[in-house]
Amino acid sequence: MIALTRMRLHAFVRTGRAVAPLIAALAVLSILYGGGQAEAVEAYGVSALVAFPVLAWQTKILLDVEPDVQRRLARVALGSARREIAAGLLAAAVAGLAVIAVALVVPWLVGGVKTGTATETAGSILTGLGVHLLALGPAVALGALSCRAVTRSAGMGAAVLVTGAVLAIVLGLQGSPVPWLVPPLMATTRLATSGGTPLAATLLTAQALTWTALTTWLYSHLRHTRT
Amino acid sequence: MLAEAVGNACTASRNRWHNRPVHLDDVWLRYHRGTPWVLQAVNARVEPGDIVVVLGRNGAGKSTLLQLIAGVLRPTRGRVSDRPAVVGWVPERFPADQAGTVTGYLRAMAAVRGLRPAAAARAVDAWVQRLGLDAFRDVKLPELSKGTAQKVGLAQALLAPPDLLILDEPWEGLDAATRDLVPGIVLEVVARGGSVLVSDHRGETVRLPGAATWTVADGTLTTAAPDSGQRCVVEVAVEAADLAGAVARLREQGHHVLRVREEVGS
């Protein structure tokens, strides 16, 4: 499975498909940090929110790089549909971690956040990592749901991706009647900017993990039935 | 001589089965709900040591059947069971539109099959040399000709010795030298106790005497036991003006005319 993960990451980078989402990530980060300094944790909260569609799009691109017949060859070579599916998700998660690393480092390089003591800086980065990871799981799951192996057409893939990303934000707004229906992106941003209790953070983590698990299950189920 | 080798290989393999037969139990398949069934109520089994030739017109469902057995497709109903651990599948068209060179791709696929780097390098070198891919080692996959890409497709299926080898039109696009290699490769798999399924519409499978025949038509599968009689292929050049007469005479004499091609000596 690791070999297939490596092969897919290699194809993602070697074909140049990794460039577009990276540029998109740098563009949104430039807009985010171009207006002056902010508290690191608050900035990371917003950064995780805007990174969500980029990470989902990147996942779709990564999974779509491989020709359909090659995906089938990989499945036969591995001897397991489950491991072939998992290898794609793992590759997308690794690529997502690279974008998150950029998102965590860039604000310090461009002076977009207020500096503090080393302990405060480390704490901010850890919190930032946490809120970005809360976005990564749902983003990979949404991107996977929009990939060609599931949607079968570019138009349907784009529709799933855009609709999913918009709904994740709109249904997560304060006052939404069904905030539990979407990953807690907006709630996480609010928690990072306004502060919250450890219990609230735990509940958001549980919601993100549950949403990721359910969406990943749906993706896996659809992949099993649509080859 | 080849027929004798087939017989020997089949006998040897049947004496040392280590696999269980692959079963297709009441297998139905359609690609989308509401569309016609591509395959209906297919029951069959592939014994270790079997060579099965899958025949049928274009679009009959040969590739679909092979992909079901390879584990690429899942039956809509029924099940395919006891598929062996190592399956080699050669698709009808190798997907050359991807990153990497010939050796890079093959080494990556060997790693996916669980081969360690040293074993992967050995397996890749062996198949690259055997299939005449030496000159293309560092060529990028999209730059390969159709036939060369097909050789890469063949090589990736053989990097780990398969217990079940599935060849979808393996002769398509291959040069004469590589076409001649295919029967030998099939016999090696069978001699190890593996089984081979091969689809063909060019009449090349006459090179595999002793093979069972499966015919796919109208969504159903008809199986026939191996022909016990041994046959040979003789390529004969005749005057173009006498072509029709020569073919008619050969048929009158009970010979099986496989195909007629205009060019000779290729």
Automatic annotation (TrEMBL), chain A:
Going by the UniProt record, its keywords in alphabetical order are: Membrane, Transmembrane, Transmembrane helix
State the source organism's domain of life: Bacteria
Q: Where are the transmembrane segments?
A: 44-63, 84-110, 122-145, 157-176, 196-219
Name by which UniProt lists this protein: Integral membrane protein
Q: Which organism is it from?
A: Catellatospora methionotrophica
- Cite the source lineage: Bacteria, Bacillati, Actinomycetota, Actinomycetes, Micromonosporales
TrEMBL record, chain B:
Q: Per its record, what are the GO molecular function terms?
A: ATP binding; ATP hydrolysis activity
Give the highest taxon in the source lineage. Bacteria
Query: Nucleotide-binding: present as a keyword of the record?
Result: yes
Q: Which UniProt keywords apply?
A: ATP-binding, Nucleotide-binding, Transport
Q: Where are the transmembrane segments?
A: none
Q: Which residues form a coiled coil?
A: none
Name the InterPro entries on file: AAA+_ATPase, ABC_transporter-like_ATP-bd, ABC_Transporter_VariousFunc, P-loop_NTPase
Record-annotated ABC transporter domain positions: 22-243
Kindly provide the name given to this protein in its UniProt entry: ABC transporter ATP-binding protein
